[in-house]
Amino acid sequence: MAEPQQDVSEKPAVRIQSPRENDFIEVELNREELSYQNLLKVSCCELGIEPEQVKTIRKLPNTLLRKDKDILRLRDFQEIELILMKNGSTELEEYTPSLIEKPCYNSNAAKLTY
Length: 114
What we know:
The protein is α+β, with helices and mostly antiparallel strands. It is 18% helix and 22% strand. The protein contains three helices and seven strands; from the N terminus they run ββββαββαβα. It has helices at 36-47, 68-72, 107-110; strands spanning 9-10, 13-16, 25-26, 29-30, 54-59, 63-65, 79-84. A hairpin with an 8-residue loop joins β2 and β3 (25-26). The longest helix is centred in the middle third of the chain and has 12 residues, at 36-47. The chain is globular and about 45 Å long.
């Protein structure tokens, strides 16, 4: 009996950080070519942005991806977020929405004291 063919690609789910957009797209990366630069290149191509616009890559909920070893630990459908630099700025700044702008914000819980 033949062995089942193993999947030779990773399929992380990628999106641009945005307070208005919550959807991810899946990208396919060949496991033999899995690297930080390839993830950046393929993600930017799929999302229609330039790699120079990307400040950082984050594995959700809160882990920055910085090198090839980090990328090799990704699993299928892992949620990845590209954080972009502000338009027209050479400084590494980002727009961080306030808690009120986030959909999970609970104003009653914010008023509680412990």
